[in-house]
Amino acid sequence: MSADEAEATDETAGDDPGDAGDSPSADTDDSPSTAGGDTPLSAEVDAGTTHTLDGDAILRLRDLDAGYGDLQILSDVDLDVADGEYVTIVGPNGAGKSTVMKTVFGLTTYMNGTVEFEGESIHGLPPEQIIREGIGFVPQNDNVFPGLSVRENLEMGAYILDSVPEDQIEEIYDRFPILRERKEQKAGTLSGGQRQMVAMGRALMLDPDLLLLDEPSAGLAPDLVADMFDRIDRINDSGTAVLMVEQNAKEALRRCDRGYVLVNGENRYTDRGEVLLGDEDVRKDFLGG
Amino acid sequence: MGTTESSIVDSARARPGLLLVALLGGLLLVDLAAKLAGVDLGPIGGALSADRLGSNLWSGVVIGLVIGLAGIGLSMTYSILSFANFSHGDLLSTGAFTGWGVAFLIAGFGDVPLRALLTVGDAGSATPGDIGAHVLSTPLAILVGLLAAFAVTAVVALALDRAFYKPMRDRDGISILIASIGAALIVRYVIQFVYGSDRRGVTASVEASNLAFGPLGISVNAHDLTIAVAALGLMLAMHFMLQRTKLGTAMRAMADNKDLALVTGIPAERVVTATWIIGGGLAGASGYLYVLLRGTIQFDFGWLLLLLIFAAVILGGIGSVYGAIAGGLVIGIVFTTSTIWIPSDFNEAAAFAVMIVMLLLRPEGLFGGVSTA
């Protein structure tokens, strides 16, 4: 799938551990010494394998089997996202990370298990109904309507409303000021980073409780990646829960509250992001060392 | 001095086809100028009055508008539903027969048996003269007929979708294309069964039906003018709908990217329904107008016209509404002006030749890559 393409542009998930992990953010506090300080602690406490939350979760997947046609990708996947939580899914190519998100939106072949949002099953609902329930989705590639203006792209995000929510559009312009400048411009003429903002803005039009982001850093120039992650942090800070699939695994785990490591369509590890980052097995097998 | 010359030579080397077409086009233009000037230079030149050229161009525009109007629906179903709809031509016939049935009903009510009116002159022995349908004598009948053509064809198109295309929505384009050929046959032979298979005249002749525009020095047939006004009006309405309404924006969004439209929350089936209503309705209206243009009707005229409509849509860049209109105009004008050089039996071939040449030079079509539903 398209995850392969994403890897080409992905610097931090490279094979060279020392260089890859630090070079994009050498000026931050993530120096080798700090990481070294974390490592002994994390190494003693191995990454967890309990994949569910004790408390309430707004998104709750249990024993989920899904795939495409006859091809099963996910087996027995459990996943929770609590209200306002920031969760990432990482794992090797073909692990089924994007499939989890598509299954939440009913875009895959459902086979078994439960998909619950805010306590009710959303399995079998049409996408426009799932959006109404409060989930926004930003797919990985081709996630804007190129022939529509920026403003029209945003308007389409609120299609199910009777009238265009002007105040929400203003809010999104405030969040992404460049979009206000370019509102009449066709989205197809924007840069990769600006398109990603349009796509996020569109998914935020109904002020969702949960935002699904599929590889938001894919295809972005390296210097824009940190900026994009900062924007996601701010979206999460304003109360929207985020479930993100990211090839840029180290950066994603550093930022998130909890991470899921998916392998061959199954849960492998689940824990707080920094614990996963510190776990020797996770580092070695899934984060390139 | 070398730069411009060498770049011309280079581009000619890179695209010898373009050079050839430019030469040929230039030759035709020189010939046309010579003909208009009345100069006779052996193979080129001859005599051609400006009036004839003007009337050729005008009738080309009128035919082009009808073909362009018909092409809008074909292009929309292609971009939004991802298949080439071969039953589109028979939707033209559907609109023409039902619309003219209604127009006859209003124009000849009371004077002519109902059966003859509703079957567009197939039953009974009513002649177009008896019924007297003409935009100058019975303008209301012509207008209501146009609206009826739109409405009935929209319903038929929607019914075909529910019966054949909706169950196949997730199949590949080729399967649905084949199904649409089947649907085309069904529609065509239902029309033949109901309305008969003979070609007959429809419009009455009215004296002084040419409207003269003194200052401009041209006179225009009242029906041609009606067609041009109606087609342009419908195209403008279409443009407004696409650009200014939420539904139109959703149509453009779906044409851009169906998967994204789905996860954005655009209710796909509602947009598809609207697409059939508008695309089918416009096909019906254009079929009705085509009969107004020709003055005759026959059960398979839409099918025979379909190839030209496809040519227009492909020429304009398949999937683009504006491309369909532009392609229709090009095809229409080539269709009529080519008779200056070649016998009118071959003008359809000329239209296709232009389409093929255009596609060789610009494979994506006139408006290709500009996805506008």
From TrEMBL, chain B:
> Where in the sequence is the signal peptide annotated?
none
Its cellular-component GO annotations read: plasma membrane
Q: Where in the cell is it found?
A: Cell membrane
Keywords for this protein: Amino-acid transport, Cell inner membrane, Cell membrane, Membrane, Transmembrane, Transmembrane helix, Transport
**Principal localisation:** membrane
Which domain of life does the protein's organism represent? Archaea
Q: What biological-process terms (Gene Ontology) are attached? A: D-alanine transmembrane transport; L-alanine transport; L-isoleucine import across plasma membrane
Q: What InterPro entries does UniProt report for this protein, alphabetically?
A: ABC_transp_permease (IPR001851), BCAA_transport_permease (IPR052157)
Record-linked Pfam families: BPD_transp_2
Ranges that cross the membrane: 57-79, 91-110, 140-160, 172-191, 225-242, 271-291, 297-315, 322-343, 349-370
The annotated topology with respect to the bilayer is: Multi-pass membrane protein
GO MF terms listed in the record are: L-isoleucine transmembrane transporter activity; L-leucine transmembrane transporter activity; L-phenylalanine transmembrane transporter activity; L-valine transmembrane transporter activity
Family, similarity comment: Belongs to the binding-protein-dependent transport system permease family. LivHM subfamily.
Protein name in the entry: Branched-chain amino acid ABC transporter permease
Species of provenance: Halorubrum saccharovorum
